Amino acid sequence: MQQLAGGIEVLSEHAVITISKAFSESQFLASAKQFVQQQQWQQAFIEQGADWQVLGFYIEQQLWWFRYDALSQGAWFECANSEHFQTSYAPLLAALNHANFT
């Protein structure tokens, strides 16, 4: 585990990057879409369940998920292929260091 400024935590063993921002269910997808569009990454899909939401996107050719859990109001980024986490998360960290989720 690696804790960074701004409440960002890298959990390499789980191929996950957590952020300390608490989202509401109604604002998550709009914020997630805006973040991905600002980075000019390709959006892949959106899925929703009773208490979760996911926005899939690509960093270069690697699929990532931006996940939201309504019960905890927590959000995190997860690499779809954990074997590629170490080689693909640098652009995401760089973007998160400048992100302003509204």
Key terms:
25% helix, 102 residues, single chain, 7-stranded antiparallel sheet, 3 helices, alpha+beta, 7 strands
Structure description:
25% of the residues lie in helices and 39% in strands. The chain has three helices and seven strands; from the N terminus they run βββαββββαα. It has helices at residues 25-38, 85-88, 90-96; strands spanning 2-4, 8-11, 16-19, 42-48, 52-59, 62-69, 74-79. It has a seven-stranded antiparallel sheet with strand order 1-2-3-7-6-5-4, covered by helices on one side. The longest helix has 14 residues, at 25-38. The radius of gyration is 12 Å and the shape is globular.
Give a brief rundown of this model:
It contains 3 helices and 7 strands, in the order E-E-E-H-E-E-E-E-H-H. By secondary structure, the protein is α+β, with helices and mostly antiparallel strands. The chain has a 7-stranded antiparallel sheet with strand order 1-2-3-7-6-5-4, covered by helices on one side.
